[in-house]
Design brief:
This protein is an alpha/beta fold. Helices cover about 50% and strands about 10% of the residues. The protein has eleven helices and seven strands. Strand 3 and strand 4 form a beta hairpin. The longest helix is centred in the N-terminal third of the chain and has 28 residues. About 5% of the residues are buried.
């Protein structure tokens, strides 16, 4: 092999090496030799400047790139992402996706948004994520503006602008003064803005309460409307009712007014009776309550059962301490509740109620068999003038 051939082969090898280095650099730059994990993003649209090889970021760190962009028949965009497998363990499965850009006219990229409640599972290969938001672009703004302008009649717009120009014509000084006054007003209320912000923040629970009660409030207003309609529909009957009520009031006024003195005298006379009934209301209630089972027993049964027995006698009345007392009083005290009355159990004898009546047969406490000496003397000697005499009444008059 001569020197010419050697130089040709060396040149060819150099060219091949240079091409290989360039291809290797391009491959390394494009990530052709990097292992990736595929993830799919489905969004309403991809945006104007969304191209393959766009970056996929999370918290400002690049975690993948856009492999391809396709469109579904319904108009949705399908983005195939090549994710860095070393970053997947840091991305939760319920991560959000925004298609955004750094500037209005800048190229789009995919931003992974961390969720507020991260899932315990991580993002995996082949997972499909729904896109949440796409940055508004200038063409969208122009499209909405064109849609609005298309609905405006130029003639009416010209009339409106002419009216506005006429309204402002010759009033520049006044408008300027109004703006200056408004600026001064804003300067005055500026120190109060923190208090206003606090009041607005404090009003949130109130507005929330009203919001929760809105259905009930609306229902109340609806019912009020129905009530008002009912009153309007029945206004004739309501007028007749009011007229009848006025006539009844006039008659009642004549009756009560004409008998005012008699009614006052009647009420005055009833005061002692009602006072006494109020004093003994417990006793009266106990008495009436005791009649209830008696009446029920008569209605339910055709016979009445009496249980009678012989008991020891009490001390006989003595003169003059056992004479009845005029205007005696028990003080209104009642033992109904304490003794379980009026429902008296069988074979139960209520105790004697000691009251200021002038007589108490149990004050000596000597119940039992007593010798009736007065009866014996009457039987032996006949009637003797004067009150009865026995050993317990020695020294008494008569």
């Amino acid at each position: 092999m001569n020197s010419t051939t050697t130089r040709a082969l060396a040149g060819l090898a150099a060219i091949v090496a240079i091409v290989a280095i360039i291809a290797l650099a391009i491959g390394l730059f494009r990530g052709s030799f990097t292992e990736t994990v595929p993830v799919t993003v489905v969004s309403d649209r991809a945006g104007l400047v969304m191209n393959p090889d766009a970056k996929v970021k999370m918290r400002g760190v690049e975690v993948g790139r856009v492999a391809s962009i396709a469109t579904k028949p319904d108009g949705q965009a399908v983005l195939k992402l090549d994710m860095n497998p070393s970053q997947l363990h840091l991305i939760p499965a319920n991560v959000g996706v925004d298609i955004t850009s750094t500037t209005v006219f800048g190229a789009k990229y995919v931003e992974l948004v961390p969720p507020t409640d991260p899932s315990p599972q991580n993002l995996r290969g082949g997972q499909v994520i729904e896109g949440q938001h796409v940055t508004t672009e200038i063409n969208t703004v122009f499209q909405q503006l064109v849609t609005v302008l298309d609905k405006i009649d130029p003639a009416k717009l010209n009339e409106t602008l002419g009216a506005v120009a006429t309204a402002f014509n010759g009033r520049g000084e006044k408008i300027g003064q109004s703006l200056a006054d408004f600026n001064a007003f804003l300067a005055k209320i500026n120190p109060s803005l923190p208090n206003l912000a606090h009041d607005i923040e404090a009003a949130v629970p109130t507005f929330t309460a009203y919001g929760d009660a809105a259905p009930d409030l609306i229902g109340t207003i609806d019912n009020s409307i129905r009530l008002s309609n009912s009153i309007v529909e029945e206004q004739q009957n309501l007028d007749e009712f009011l007229l009848s009520a006025i006539g009844l009031a006039d008659v009642g006024n004549d009756v009560i007014g004409g008998n005012r003195q008699a009614l006052s005298d009647t009420l005055r006379v009833l005061v002692p009776t009602t006072t006494l009934a109020g004093l003994y209301h417990e006793t009266l209630g106990c008495t009436i309550g005791g009649l209830v089972p008696f009446v029920r027993g008569i209605n339910q049964y055709s016979h009445i059962l009496f249980n009678a027995s012989l008991t020891l006698g009490t001390e006989r009345y003595r003169y003059p301490e056992d004479l009845p007392k005029v205007a005696a009083s028990t003080g209104g005290r009642s033992f109904c509740t304490e003794l379980g009355l009026p429902d008296v159990p069988p074979e139960f004898r209520p105790p004697f109620l000691v009251a200021d009546t002038g007589s108490n047969p149990f004050k000596y406490g000597n119940q039992g068999l007593l010798l009736n000496s007065d009866g014996l003397k009457q039987w032996l000697f006949g009637p003797i003038p004067g009150p009865p005499r026995n050993s317990a009444m020695t020294g008494m008059p008569g």
